[in-house]
Design goal:
Layout: E1 7-11, E2 17-28, E3 33-40, E4 55-61, E5 68-71, H1 76-97
Antiparallel strand pairs: 1-2, 2-3, 3-4, 4-5
Length: 98
Amino acid sequence: MEHGQETMTVVDEHGVEHVCEVIFTFESEDFGKSYVLYHILGEDEVGEDDEVEIHASAFIPSEDNEDGELLPIETDEEWDMIEEMLNTFLAEEDEDEE
C-alpha cells in the first residue's frame, strides 16, 4: 500500500462502518506481526496546523491481500515500537516536503 492511495473500511464496536485512509503499513520481525496506521476520513475536518487522530492496529492479511482482520495492539512495547515507526515516517515525510 502506498501512502494516501489506499482506503479500508473499519467496523467499530457499535457496528458502524468508517472509511479510513491508510497512512502506512509495516511488518515487525520482533513481534512477528504486520501493522497498519490509519485515520478515519470525514472525522471532524481539521485545519493545516491541527493534528489528525491516527489509529493503529495489528492485522492479518487475507490470502488475496484484499482485506484482512484487524487486531488490537496488546503491549506497551508494541505501542512504543509503533510510535517510533510513526515518528520516523513523519520525519521522512517532512524531509520530502522540503
